[in-house]
Amino acid sequence: MLAFHPPRRHRGFTLVELLVVIAIIGIMVGLLLPAVQAAREAARRMSCQNNLKQLGLALHNYESVHRIFPPSSVTVGGAANQPWSGQSFLLPYVEGNNTYNLINFSIGYHSAGNRDLFPPHGIAATRVAVLMCPSDPNDRERIDPASSQPYHYPLNYALNVGRYLIYNPVNRAEGGAAFAPNGRLGPAAFVDGLSNTIGLAEVKAFTPRFHDAVLPVGEPLFPAEVSANVQGGAWSATNGHTEWVCGRAIHTGFTTTFTPNTRVPHLVGGQTFDIDVSTSREGRNLTDATRGVITSRSYHPGLVMVAMMDGSVRGLSDSIRGDVYRALGTRAGGEANTTE
């Protein structure tokens, strides 16, 4: 007689058990995601630091050859209306020799003699990798609205050109910073010490900006004063720091009027923008002074990365005191022992 065996029951997960497992997985992902994002940002910050280290080394290699650091721009000669940037002068020292050797610096960057040598869109739209921070999401060409073609390429590392005054062509006064238009500054000019003077700092590509605006001669004390007092000028919601070739501070410089990542709000069409402002751009004429509120900003939480003039790189906190920050911005302000 055959024995009777009851059918086996294949036990699976109950709905409650599945929901518990899904909840546990969700909690684990929630715990791990910030850690992954933090690790990625740390890697991006290290890459940014390495870019600034290369630029700091390039400054000293330039100085070894020319006995001076590069000017922030050159506002005389055939390229005065399209002045070349200090960053462009560093190309041979950041593995950009081939590009540098093709450029005719005696004419503007949009002149045919330069544009046609860099097809399809010209030198101004050429990307220079060492000038871009990996944390900035706007690593892309700036498009010319008239032609719908790439016209310029942005950058994230700007030269320190002053506290508020940048350049006065009448008396050739400059901002007392690490770089200046037509500057011929050697190490001896840095009375405060190269290690106590900021050379380059981060800026955000495609920053909202005014240029050729009117601002008071006196330096603003609060960000709200900037919007309240700016008059005229050319407004763009996107075009600041989008021209790595251009020696004008609104694109390749920064000022130490306000501490890193300070918001400078300006309302346009019901939308509030965080702006930069400069008065008459360097080289535009021989009479109007250039002043600017051009703030160092970054996508790194809580800080901006800077290269000091001795080549060292550090992060400056958003909470740095204003007087300390401005002291680090001067080359001969007598604050050599200032610490954060």
Question: Short description, anyone?
Answer:
With 340 residues, the protein is of the alpha+beta class. The chain has helices at residues 15-66, 86-89, 97-102, 112-115, 223-229, 249-252, 322-329; strands at residues 142-144, 149-152, 157-160, 165-168, 173-174, 198-202, 207-211, 234-240, 253-254, 265-268, 271-274, 276-278, 290-293, 303-308, 313-317.
Verbal overview:
The chain is α+β, with helices and mostly antiparallel strands and 340 residues long. The protein has one domain. It contains 7 helices and 15 strands. The strands form 4 sheets. A 6-stranded mixed beta sheet has the order 5-4-13-12-7-8. Strand 1 and strand 2 (149-152) form a beta hairpin. The model has no long low-confidence stretch (mean pLDDT 93).
Give the end-to-end Cα distance, rounded to a whole number of Å.
Answer: 94 Å
Average pLDDT, rounded to a whole number, is: 93
Give the domain tally: 1
Strand order within the widest beta sheet = 5-4-13-12-7-8
Number-wise, the strands total: 15
Largest sheet properties: 6 strands, mixed
Low-confidence stretches: none
- The portion of residues forming beta strands comes to 15-25%
Compute the gyration radius: what is it? 25 Å
| Structural class label | alpha+beta
Proportion of residues in helical segments: 25-40%
What coarse outline follows from CA principal-axis ratios?
elongated
Compute the number of helices: 7
| Order of secondary-structure elements | HHHHEEEEEEEHEHEEEEEEEH
